[in-house]
Specification:
single chain, 311 residues, mainly alpha, 3-stranded antiparallel beta sheet
């Protein structure tokens, strides 16, 4: 029998399920569901009174390591919203711990040099090496790589796709597969019946692990997080001739706002584009004045010189 003034423990899983049920009308409810799946790694076994600032800080740092500060803040904002709802609407907890947000500065352009890439791949365990390499070759986000299913891959047509329910912009993302990317996929065949990437016979839930950080340390790579593989991919694409429009389509960005951060890398390609006009203009016309016939040259000088009537 419940005693007066003593609340029963309320689990995070129950709170999350109630949130999804009561907020089913939200346009972004599917995004909430995805975030809650990720948060289960840290909160699934907790009651609400066990969620304190220390645990929340661990969650914030973990998400910041693998995604942008804006994305990390969206996860933390969802946790805070559910906890506040539990306090104010459901009255199942007395107070909500402080939820720290990350200062948003997403203008990172950290990318791996070729030497750094070689050192990192040499230090990573084989299963993580292939995942990191595939992310670098396709530009896919960590969640999209880990959730890639064999049913989303057509090796014969050299094509894969991210379903709309797993896409950040809510639209299916086509993933053309380069020869190198196909080689990575070929090495995964037969390891798991449904998921492309696995470890010890089970689908992987995260690559932002101790093994990842130890590999970075051994490789002497600083100020680098998993999401920077996507920046490296975008930078390499631009520097090798991919247009901003093509990059937007390949990267699954809904608008060109995020793509513009790579515009400065396209300067050399713009020089190449500008030089194409030379192909349509005969070289002998470039210095046309020097090549004019003598009578035409004289006529031009006469035309340019002021007449006596003008003095």
């Amino acid at each position: 029998m419940r005693r007066l003034n003593v609340r029963a423990k309320y689990s995070w899983k129950k709170a999350a399920a109630r949130w999804l049920s009561e907020r089913a009308y939200k346009r972004t409810i599917d995004a909430d569901r995805k975030k809650l799946c990720w948060l289960d790694t840290y909160l699934a076994d907790c009651t609400l009174d066990q969620i304190d600032r220390e645990l929340l800080e661990r969650i914030r740092l973990a998400k910041t390591e693998e995604a942008s500060s804006t994305t990390a803040n969206r996860y933390m904002a969802l946790v805070r919203a559910i906890l506040r709802c539990a306090q104010i609407e459901w009255a199942v907890i007395d107070q909500v711990p402080s939820v720290r947000m990350t200062r948003e500065n997403n203008a990172r352009d950290r990318m791996l040099s070729e030497a750094e890439l070689r050192r990192l791949l040499a230090e990573l365990p084989p299963h993580q090496r292939d995942i990191a390499l595939f992310a670098l070759l396709t530009g896919l986000r960590q969640s999209n790589v880990l959730n890639l299913m064999w049913s989303h891959v057509d090796l014969e047509r050299q094509h894969a796709f991210v379903p709309r329910d797993q896409s950040k912009n809510g639209q299916s993302i086509p993933v053309p597969l380069s020869p190198h990317a196909l080689s990575v996929l070929e090495r995964q065949k037969g390891k798991h019946p449904t998921h492309v990437f696995s470890f010890k016979g089970k689908p992987m839930k995260s690559v932002n692990t101790r093994a990842w950080h130890l590999a970075l340390s051994r490789a002497g790579i600083e100020n680098f997080r998993w999401h920077d593989l996507r920046h490296s991919w975008a930078s390499l694409q631009i520097r090798n001739g991919t247009s901003l429009y093509e990059l937007q389509k390949l990267g699954g960005w809904k608008s060109d706002a995020m793509v513009q951060r790579y515009a400065h890398l396209a300067a050399d390609q713009l020089k190449v584009a500008a030089a194409r006009i030379d192909l349509g203009v005969p070289a002998d016309l470039v210095n046309a004045e020097d090549n004019l016939p003598r009578d035409a040259d004289a006529a031009l000088r006469e035309k340019e010189s002021p007449s006596k009537d003008e003095h």
